[in-house]
Amino acid sequence: MSHSILDIIGNTPLVISKVVNTNPNVKLLFKLEGNNPGGSVKDRAAFNMIKGGLERGDFDTNSKLIEATSGNTGIALAMIAGIYGLDIELVMPENSTKERVQTMRAYGAKVTLTPADVGIEGARDYAELKVKEEGYVMINQFSNDDNWKAHYKSTGPEIWKDTQGEITHFVSSMGTTGTIMGTSTYLKEKNSNIQIVGVQPADEAKIPGIRKWPEEYLPKIFNPKKVDTVMEVTEEEARDMAKRLAKEEGIFAGMSSGGAAAAAVKLAQSLEKGVIVSIVCDRGDRYLSSDLFD
């Protein structure tokens, strides 16, 4: 059977932890979002945001699209924009890994690098300026409801179905917060007792893909009422768990996935029983030029 590449976004596997979870009364499951065609959970949101924008007439093939990204969303947008024949510029800090930049360019996107010292906030400011002064159209993952709705339509239902409704806790790193917002909305409708756990970096920790946003940059799609607990992880915990996932579980993923898994393992140790699903948001191969796996 032949599929469009877009048809194979989603329906990613759940695998059980055999090593890092040591509580025999708790089942810890990892949802492998790196199995999406663009290599991350962001394929879901990017597809929904582009499809929704085209259907509403927010932009078309004559528009100049722009988006600030720390990486995975940019790769997904580049892939899907290319399929639809859309012109897109992606803006990211200059300290982003080479693999990310090269992948976006391979898909046909223009990539602009902003100074590392102003971070993703600086990239967002640059994109806003291009919208105001040069007529660009921003996808705006931070305030675009199609971001979280992608997970309401796909990630949440998949987890509910694949755990036969037995899930008790959902763990996700928080960046744009689209994954946790949409999945929480769906799972809470099914069973309001399911606990939603958001993962943030501890103070001073730099973990690509996880943010503790300053108030003025807080994603507009974020609703704190949809998160029951916020757990903080250190950079060291996220790094160590990313390495352990690869070495002990055969799951090759990035640092934000390591952060979520570290929080999920701590959570598992604190429970008498339960079924935890933790999002593994991407693949480790886009971090090979960094020092993550040194």
From TrEMBL:
The keyword Transferase applies. InterPro entries: Cys_synth (IPR005856), Cys_Synth/Cystath_Beta-Synth (IPR050214), CysM (IPR005858), P-phosphate_BS (IPR001216), TrpB-like_PALP (IPR001926), TrpB-like_PALP_sf (IPR036052). It is an enzyme of class 2 (transferase). Its cofactor is pyridoxal 5'-phosphate. Pathway: Amino-acid biosynthesis; L-cysteine biosynthesis; L-cysteine from L-serine: step 2/2. This is Cysteine synthase. The keyword Transmembrane helix does not apply. Residues 6-282 form the Tryptophan synthase beta chain-like PALP domain. One of its GO terms (molecular function) is cysteine synthase activity. Belongs to the cysteine synthase/cystathionine beta-synthase family. Its EC number is 2.5.1.47. It comes from Arenibacter arenosicollis.
